[in-house]
Amino acid sequence: MPVLTLADGHGLAYAVTGPEGAPWLVLGNSLMTTQAIWAEQVAAFSDRFRVLTWDQRGHGASALPAGPLDMATLAADLVALCEALDVTGATYVGLSMGVPTGLTALPALVGRVSQLVLVDGLAASSGAAFWDERIGFARANGMAALAAQTAARWLPSAVAKRPELEAMIASVPLEGFAACAHALRGYDARAAFEDFAGPVLLIAGEADARIVPGMQALASSRPGTRLALVPGAGHLPCFEAPERFNALLAETL
């Protein structure tokens, strides 16, 4: 897997799949998942799109950060990738943490991102307390315990897929999780969302009770923005219900 060495020396693992010259499709993963979460989308769309995935800092094959991160740093990583690979006219699909990562990067991606698909994520942080509790739980109990708890919550209708997700989450180093969770404690990318001139589609798992109300409010805040709910799915509809998710994504591509 190729690794981009960033200006600060950090190594960022990424993959590009699909024919040269095809339209770009950039897929940004969530906290506690690697770029493997997009396997069904890469398989479905790389015949006609140039698909870019990457592991956010501290996840997958990317290097471990030295300490807590902020959203500006995660967004700068995306910008560096797009510049290095000369990404233009892309559809950006962000999942959970990938939503604020992409939105925070938008002002520096003019001409490189032409439309957005935002999945089970928010444009502004819901506050520090939730993330402080999650970090504390992981430090006290380990990533395997966090993985089991999270997979059960995130995949309400796909029990058979929980072991795969548990293994993915448990593979994330504790300090990688904690560093990125810290970035989610306080961010606000609502202005970038409202100012974006291109088409926007919001997708959420219908059963993701913590996120759906915020996404409904997000859709209402920007004229022409539609929220599509995936029946029965939780926080990761691209993984839990890929056929339905891919159909929604195909409609906007």
Provide a compact summary of the structure.
By secondary structure, this protein is of the alpha/beta class.
Q: What about the largest sheet?
A: 8 strands, mixed
Helical element count? 11
Total tally of structural domains:
1
- Please state the structural category: alpha/beta
Q: Total strand count, please?
A: 8
Q: What's the CATH topology name?
A: Rossmann fold
Name given to the CATH homologous superfamily: Alpha/Beta hydrolase fold, catalytic domain
Give helix and strand order, one letter per element, not per position. Answer: EEEHEHEHEHHHHHEHEHH
**CATH A-level architecture:** 3-Layer(aba) Sandwich
**CATH first level: which class?**
Alpha Beta
Give the strand line-up of the largest sheet: 1-2-4-3-5-6-7-8
Q: Unreliable stretches, pLDDT < 50, 5 or more residues?
A: none
* Average pLDDT rating: 96
The span between the termini is 27 Å
Beta-strand content estimate: 15-25%
Shape: globular
Rg measurement, Å: 17 Å
Provide an overview of this structure.
This protein is α/β, with parallel strands linked by helices and 253 residues long. It has one domain: Rossmann fold (3-Layer(aba) Sandwich). The chain is 41% helix and 17% strand. The chain contains 11 helices and 8 strands. The chain has an 8-stranded mixed sheet with strand order 1-2-4-3-5-6-7-8, with helices on both faces. A hairpin with a 5-residue loop joins strand 1 and strand 2. Helix 2 crosses helix 3, helix 4 packs across helix 5 and helix 4 runs antiparallel to helix 7. The chain is globular and about 45 Å long. The protein starts with a strand and ends with a helix. The mean pLDDT is 96.
